[in-house]
Write a structure and sequence with these properties.
204 residues, 9 helices, 73% helix, 0% strand, elongated, DNA-binding
Chain lengths: 204, 204
DNA sequence: CATTTTCCTGCATGGTCATTCAAGATAATG
DNA sequence: CATTATCTTGAATGACCATGCAGGAAAATG
């Protein structure tokens, strides 16, 4: 495995990035199981052995892909993770995020959905990773709704935990439907409609 | 392939059903790509050769699994496919369906979600099947909302197509979240919450 | 320039995969 | 009972899979 001690050569860095890029694309399209290291290496202009050399194993590459995907997702957030936005701000952000995804980041969304579905079962290698990520998102939403109920900007007779799950479910499902049928599913429009309705419902 | 001409023997019928049952369970857990014919055959108490004999190929088995899953899904519907329920009836049915799924049919839900995600890409073998199934559901919902708007039982200023996509997205996403984390996601509760809110929103 | 580290390749290995085939076992038919 | 169709198996095939290894190319270091 490279980079443990000694120097990092720029050629190696470029190759690794090329491999991760190739892996992201192929994993998103065919899943981890459906993608062989040979295909990834070829797309990156290298051999399977070179790939193993850089990442130790296929699992090592998967780990690197996950970290890179996280990095990209955070980068796009452009908002401190400990911010406390209002309901309207948060809803607006979800709609904008959907817009951005629909316009330029189909790949990352497909990676997320494909790998999530590949790891539904508790025994799966990345099950905990995706399960905990879902929990974190719901906890975040739960805090948002709890805050809004406390400061009076939303009605307080709805269970914030159920509400959080509902929102998370909608977002996840909307992305899935859009990935499956982008010609007939307008990711942005459905987000706009849903969050407008939700805002209305919470105001009542 | 069996059954083309001549008689069907009951032993063969039983074996085929055992194989389809085994395949449903394993496909639901690990996807089609992640499941080998050997594993399916073993779980059905047979050999890979016997499986190929009955279904011609792995793809043939997948087709049989899809048809059987359809059969089971329709069977549980217990409602004529051309019925024209009211909004409240339809919403109630969705909640009951979620209840039933959570209680006794996790497997079928997992099969649906796993195979859908495995066939997001247009090139995938079953892409069209799942895409068209999604379209049919949305068309069904669209008709429901259009009817409700026309007869005055729901407000008419919302796009029924967007609404239909929203509902489909929620249902799909809720199932996905529940499959990933059944301990923390209450499929029934989130359905109840969502459809109660939706009914309220449409009444306004 | 010599040495050391990093990078990469060609080749080999053992594993799993779906599928084929020949042949035997079981059941139905006349 | 004999024939015919159905069912099932065991062994073999070729394709792909992830990974290991030995040696060589490229780059950095002294």
């Amino acid at each position: 495995m490279a980079g443990v001690k000694g120097q990092v050569q720029k050629r190696g860095v470029a190759r690794r990035r090329a491999m991760v890029d190739a892996a992201i694309k192929l994993f998103a399209q065919q899943g981890v199981r459906g993608t062989g290291v040979a295909a990834i290496a070829e797309r990156a202009g290298a051999t399977p052995s070179a790939l193993i050399h850089h990442f130790g194993s296929k699992d090592g590459l998967v780990q690197a892909v996950l970290e890179e995907a996280d990095r990209r997702a955070l980068e796009r957030l452009s908002v401190p993770p400990d911010a406390e936005p209002t309901l309207d701000q948060a809803f607006d952000w979800f709609v904008r995020d959907a817009e951005h995804t629909a316009a330029t980041e189909r790949e990352l969304a497909a990676l997320h959905t494909t790998l999530t579905a590949e790891n539904l079962e508790p025994g799966a290698a990345l099950h905990t990773w995706f399960r905990d990520r879902g929990r974190a998102l719901r906890a975040h939403l739960n805090a948002l709704f709890t805050r809004a109920a406390a400061d009076g900007s939303a009605r307080a007779d709805l269970d914030p935990a159920v509400l959080a799950t509902e929102v998370a479910a909608f977002i996840e499902g909307a992305h899935l439907l859009w990935l499956l049928d982008p010609d007939e599913v307008d990711l942005t429009a459905v987000h706009r409609g849903y969050f407008a309705g939700l805002a209305e419902r919470l105001r009542t």
